[in-house]
Here is the input.
Amino acid sequence: MLEQILETKRKEIETIILPPQNNVKRISLINALKHSKRKPALIAEVKKASPSKGVIRPNFEPIAIAKAYEEAGAAAISVLTDQRYFEGHRDYLIQVKQAVQVPILRKDFIIDRKQIEESVRIGADAVLLIGEALEVKKLYDLYEEAYEKGLECLVEVHERDTLERILTVFTPKLIGVNNRNLKTFQTSLDTTKEMARLLPKESLFVSESGISSYKEIQTVREYGADAILVGESLMKKENVLSAVRELFGEVNSFVDTP
Ligand SMILES: O=C(O)c1ccccc1NCC(=O)[C@H](O)[C@H](O)COP(=O)(O)O
Here is the structure.
């Protein structure tokens, strides 16, 4: 599946028309995660659909969702901008950035400098770089390019080998361990557990995907996660504000009937 997505991206890059520079105040994702009141800090995802689940949220209103996430105490918001597989759009990120004060992560398949420039112009604060999608040298070049342009990077890994390869070249400031197997789409928090002990102490650590309960939050916290990235389980709930509170064990999910 990843190869299929990347093939689509390679073709799309040719067609990207860079929008004019959007004058926005850049906010540090890393600082927001470090200083979050919620522990682990929450990166809440604006996600309409996915290759594994199809449409998750038919009634999709990115601005309203983002504002609710912010009100619920999310430290940052992740916006999927891939159109083909996630029904996202770069315009959603532009709109969300204007509507909230928390940092915005552009969640897409970044494989080229042109996408970094595009991310700057649409107002992203950080971009995702996926270890399995890039040669380490290329990943490092994009990482440097992003930082030079004022963006931070979440360097995501799914497999131990990928992490080990990256760490021979550099130490990312922010590392995401993705619990989703890219071949089967199954999620397992064991991935977080297994990778946690390999992570450099100086990197901030995000556990991504497949988190849907307070118990699971406690589990990844025990494994050492500083932050979590959650999409589907929040997007499936009509009221995302109370969905965040439920996820963090603050309100009961049961509604009493008379
Ligand atoms: O979500 C998918 O099905 C997917 C499939 C293939 C590549 C990436 C995919 N998701 C991107 C993400 O990493 C997630 O949207 C993010 O971590 C949130 O995960 P979840 O809470 O499970 O929606």
The chain has eleven helices and ten strands. Residues 1, 45, 47, 50-52, 178, 180, 182, 185, 208-211, 229-233 surround LARABZUK (CB under 6 Å). The longest strand covers residues 41-46. Strands lie at 41-46, 49-50, 54-55, 76-80, 104-107, 126-130, 152-157, 174-178, 204-208, 227-230.
